[in-house]
Amino acid sequence: MLNKIKILALNANATADELGITERLVNMMVGLLGGFPAELVVFIISLFPILECRGGMIAASLLGVNYWLGLVISIVGNLLPIPFIFLFIEKIFELMKKTKLLGKLVNKIEAKAMSKSEKITKYKRWGLLLFVGIPLPGTGAWTGALIAVLLKLNLKDSVISIFLGVLMASGIMSFITYGLPWLISLFA
Questions:
Q1: Are 65 and 32 in contact, with CB atoms under 8 Å apart?
Q2: Are residues 100 and 151 in the same domain?
Q3: One domain for residues 160 and 93
Q4: 163 versus 16: which is more confidently predicted?
Q5: How many C-beta atoms surround the C-beta of residue 185 within 10 A?
Q6: CA-to-CA distance for 75 and 83, rounded, in angstroms?
Q7: Which domain holds residue 7?
Q8: How far apart, in whole angstroms, are the C-alpha atoms of residue 143 and residue 152?
Q9: Which has the closest alpha carbon to 51: 142, 149, 163?
């Protein structure tokens, strides 16, 4: 089973039915960054929105990176952009809105983020923690930080919720990428 997962994920010709969007993006990134050390590939993948620690943990598993090292790299890579989002995203969006093309893009990004903000608005820090912590497409630290900024949530509470959410997501992804294949191998 594990070998089939690795073969599918590393196979550039795998069909859309065989791989989810995250796995396809990880596969593409691993292919693009193939000449770099595996740990650097995991770090770079973890920096990207959409992929974040989910993609980093998948890449770490597929590239044979030690579990603990892959976990730390994925978490650090996922958290590194967050302070920059809190500090600069409003100013960057403000500047971008002054141009016609980029203004439309910013409005689209804000609308997409706000469309996911209902639970965060209702439950504040707990909603933000769960939004970041449950590794589903369109959720994660990047979007959580953007929503926190747009909703003008308390910075300290938001940072704590996002940090704990990343830890939760990395725990879930640890089980999926390392624990589940190990359990399956016990019964195979």
A1: no
A2: yes
A3: yes
A4: 163
A5: 11
A6: 14
A7: 2-79
A8: 14
A9: 142
If you average pLDDT over residues 147-154, what whole number do you get?
Answer: 93
Does residue 151 form part of some domain? Answer: yes
175 in a structural domain: no
pLDDT 10s digits, 66-77: 999 999 999 999
What global pTM score does this model have?
A: 0.83
> Between the CA of residue 85 and those of 42, 93, 163, 167, what are the distances in Å?
21, 11, 14, 19
Instruction: Identify the H or E element spanning 178.
Output: none
Q: Could you tell me which of 35, 36, 70, 37 has the C-alpha nearest to residue 56?
A: 70
SS3 of residue 18 by DSSP: coil
Total domains in the chain come to: 2
Looking at the structure, do residues 160 and 111 belong to the same domain, yes or no?
Answer: yes
Q: How far is CA 54 from CA 21, 92, 112, 146, 166, in A?
A: 11, 26, 20, 18, 9
Q: Do 96 and 110 fall into the same domain?
A: yes
State whether 73 and 19 are in the same domain: yes
